[in-house]
Amino acid sequence: MCGVIGVMANSPVNQLIYDALLLLQHRGQDAAGMTTNQGQRFCMHKGKGMVRDVFRTRNMRDLHGNMGIGHVRYPTAGAVDSVEEAQPFYVNAPYGITLAHNGNLTNTDEVRDELFRLDRRHINTGSDSEVLLNVLAHELDISVNEEDATAALTYQHFFSAMRRVNARIKGAYACVGMAAGLSVFGFRDPNGIRPLVLGQRQTKSGAIEYILASESVAIEGVGYKTVRDIAPGEAIWIDMDGTLHSQICAENTQLSPCLFEYVYFARPDSTIEGTSVYAARLAMGETLADKIAREIDVKDIDVVMPIPDTSRPCAMQLASKLGLSYREGFIKNRYIGRTFIMPGQETRQKSVRQKLTAMPSEFAGKNVLLVDDSIVRGTTSQEIVALARESGANKVYFASAAPAVKFPNVYGIDMPTRTELIANNKSLAEISEAITADKVIYQDLSALIESVQSAGQAGGQSRLTQFDASCFNGEYVTGDIDDAYLDRLEQNRFDAQQSKKKAK
Fold it and tell me: What is the set of domains in the chain, with CATH numbers?
């Protein structure tokens, strides 16, 4: 999971992109980067770490131009520790193209081989984003040469290229990019798995400026107005004069956004596909309360506590519906990153104690219901339950706003192997024992879908009829994932871990 931003403006965009990346920091904390365009020249700076650490004043001064793109990285493909895989990526032919990508391709190996054998293009990293960029560059070259090798690159060439790009690659991708001296562009995969939003504002002179971002909060937080979500399979091309062109460039499109965006990844103040993330999380609390009332004697619960911060709306609404006391038993150190998206299990486990501090006065002698957004590997949940018991809790019930995560997510979330997922091969009783909770309660998938749909019905019927819920039900919307594919992923991950151990 990553965050992307693209801007076409009438004044320097470096500070604006920096501010927008800060608003998207929750989507990736491993690396950050920015590319701007002045004339025919790209100006780029990227590095490992968070936005405030990567960009210094001296870096910002070198990022010239009125259009640019930015990226925050959460690594799911390629090397976690490689600064070379920070984005945006750049190729100098044809024309000069730079790209930032959110998502994950599922046929990277096949396309990488085609690029080398047939297209004669070299890939220098293990990143699927570099593969995607080179496919786009190759298809743009073909589009222009089909008409006239000397012709200038136009939006028609771009749309023609995108139709072939979408036919060649599979997976999840929401991208922004630039063609040097020509345009800012963006596109989204045919299933719309990863979000991409269009915004605009009018300058004092009456000119219209455009912005593309992973979430609406990054658009509105820098003074733009959200216009709409980019449609599945849609490509956007914004000329230097501010003219916007758009076209659906894929066959058989079907909006299937990732459910985990609403559960965990997106900020609560974002709107995705017309649905308030905050409203969706409140609705999750309603349906989860119903589930808890069926499985536990509510009178045995003294207090409801969220695991800060993602689960707070769900926990508040749950407590209200059940008529239970709501308390903040854990205090979060906001200078520690999100543990779920931290690379490496040891790092995540250690960070839990650094991130959360329990208040014994809120736990002592009480039966507590802890509410979290999800249970993935179980290591974080185990540490949290231990903290509650160390602080004097009598009983600890643990509720998840999401259903049991039983399958890998191959579309840009770091859930790559079945063996790492606690719910994949354990019963509810075994999961409870593993995290040392008195009882674990999961949201039902049907209830989660109902929650998101109901939150999107303000002013009419929700347009969300289908979701990518693959990590819950094992149904992959791209249709190209089978057991053999998952076996290869697991073997590759094991091999990478062994190589890292040997290197130490």
Answer: 3-256 (3.60.20.10), 278-456 (3.40.50.2020)
Token reading at 128: 């699927």
Residues 6+ apart with CB under 8 A from 60: 14, 15, 18
Residue 292 CA, chain-centre distance (Å), reads 29
Contact (CB, 8 A) for 409 and 220:
no
Q: 471 catalytic, yes or no?
A: no
Would you say 462 and 453 are in contact if contact means Cβ atoms under 8 Å apart?
yes
Q: Per the structure block, which two tokens stand in for 227?
A: 């216009």
The kind and range of the H/E element at 456 are none
CA distance 189 to 192: 5
DSSP 345-378: HHHHHHHHHHHEEE-HHHHTT-EEEEEES--SSS
pLDDT at 347 over 70: no
pTM of structure = 0.93
Q: Which of 355, 371, 358 is nearest to 313 (CA)?
A: 371
Tens digits of per-residue pLDDT, 219-267? 999 999 999 999 999 999 999 999 999 999 999 999 999 999 999 999 9
Residues 465, 468, 472, CA angle at the centre, nearest 5°? Answer: 115
Tell me the CA end-to-end span of the chain in Å, nearest whole number.
28
